[in-house]
Structure formats: structure tokens, C-alpha cells
Amino acid sequence: MASQTQLTWFGQSAFKIVTPAGNVLLIDPWLQNPKNPNGKEDLANLKRVDLIFVTHGHSDHVGDAVEIAKKTGAKLVAGLDLATAMIIVLGFPSKQAEMNTTPLFGGEVKLLDGEVTTVLVPAIHGSGLGKDDESRPIYAGEPGGVVIAIKNGPTFYHTGDTDLFSDMALVPRYNKIDIMMVCIGDHFTMGPRRAADAVKLVGPRTVIPMHYATFPVLTGTPEEFDRELKNLKLEADLRVMKIGETISV
């Protein structure tokens, strides 16, 4: 029997996926965020990472990507303009961010000998990138989300930071989504009500809320999100993960 896919949440929008073949993927790897008490240890314990997905240039999503890449040799999967900015501004290793892993919206890319198929999809947000929080941000491409299909495993849709928009309904036309990681925090992204409408457009089997409670302005809660999903009579299974938790999917 094939191994199951493992999913870990580190807080904010940071996830780790371990595929049935043992490949390790990170998404928006801000492991050392203020809500993760074990962030430093989590970072130190990363011995293998194959791919690092980054949805946009904000520091709470780029996170620890450069340090992880230098430590593990992981390749960057991000929009071409974002990847270029990360190389120039942050020193991401250029040999680990070449054209074969840095597409633009709609381009399907097969990685890790075909075990992972990914496509970048739009989001409505910003994407300025700076060397630190005090730096003047530079253009880093358009913000996005990412669809990740695992061979012999589930298909994920990580929304990145975004508002609700009607073209989310096109995502499942090309990829039936098993697991949707959806931002619910409000203020910088959609809140619970709009996030529930996003789930209705996409129709995932399971939905995992993210990007909430990290800062005081992120006021959306899983409880409110649950109420909004129930108001819409949606069948998606709500899975509220704890920071540091790993589940089989």
C-alpha cells in the first residue's frame, strides 16, 4: 500500500507536504512566525526540502526561504518575476531558481520526475518585496495562489493572500481540488464570509483555514468561518489544524 501524503501547518500560510515518495515541499515557509513557539527548532530540523513554493513577495510568505534553500538545495517554485526579485534582493541561489521551476500563471509544470504537477493561479493582493521590513519594497511580480497535484495523492489549492474573486470558479475546471488552504484573517485578505464564498466556488473536499490570528488585525476566526460555511450549506470538511500539527491526507 502506498504511503499517504503528510501535511504540516507551521502557522500563518506556511505548510510542509511530504509526498508518498518522500519528497518534501514547503509553501510560504515563514516557520519562525510569532505564533509558532517551535519555529527555530522546526527550521533547524529541516534536513531535506526538495521544492519551496512562494506565492508572493511579502515577508510573511517569503519567510525563511533563502536560508532553507541554502541549507538544503531546494528549488524555488514561484512566478518568474518574484523569483528574479528574490535572487537580486535576497540572495536566493540563482541555480535553484531557474526557468524550469519559475513559470507564470496558467503554465503547468511537472517536477520531481512527474510526482508533482503544479500551476500558478492568480490572486488579488500585493507583492512588494524588500530586504527587510524597513526597506522600500520593489516590484516582485503579481501575487498568486498555487495548485499542487501529487501523484498517488491529493490535489492542493493554496490561495496565497487574496480577496474573493469570481475566477476562482475556474480552478476546479482544470484540477479537482481535494484540499483548499484558504486565508480567512480579514484586513489584508478576505475574511470568513468571503472565504466561505471562495470555498463555494472551488468545491474542495476539505478546507483548511490559514492566515489568521498571527497579528491583532487578522481578526477572522475558524469559528466564524465554520458558521459561514454552514450558512451556505457547503459539504466541504472543515479541518482546523493546530500549529505544528501533521495530518495524513
Folded structure, characterized:
With 249 residues, the chain is α/β, with parallel strands linked by helices. The protein has seven helices and 13 strands. It has one domain (6-241): Ribonuclease Z/Hydroxyacylglutathione hydrolase-like (Metallo-beta-lactamase, Chain A), CATH 3.60.15. A seven-stranded mixed beta sheet has the order 6-7-8-9-10-11-12. It has a six-stranded mixed beta sheet with strand order 5-4-3-2-1-13, with no helix packed on it. α6 (192-202) packs across α7.
Quick description:
This protein has 249 residues and is α/β, with parallel strands linked by helices. The chain is built from seven helices and 13 strands.
For this structure, what is the CATH homologous superfamily?
Ribonuclease Z/Hydroxyacylglutathione hydrolase-like
Low-pLDDT regions: none
Structural class: alpha/beta
- The helix fraction, in percent, is 10-25%
Mean pLDDT: 97
Helix and strand element order: EEEHEHHEHEEEEHEHEHEE
What's the main sheet like? Answer: 7 strands, mixed
Q: Strand content of the residues, in percent?
A: 15-25%
Name its key features.
249 residues, alpha/beta, Metallo-beta-lactamase, Chain A, six-stranded mixed beta sheet, 7 helices, 22% helix
Topology:
Elements lengths: L5 E6 L2 E5 L5 E4 L11 H6 L6 E3 L5 H4 L2 H8 L2 E3 L2 H11 L17 E4 L4 E7 L21 E7 L4 E4 L12 H4 L4 E5 L8 H11 L3 E5 L11 H10 L5 E2 L7 E3 L1
Parallel strand pairs: 3-4, 4-5, 9-10, 10-11, 11-12
Antiparallel strand pairs: 1-2, 1-13, 2-3, 6-7, 7-8, 8-9
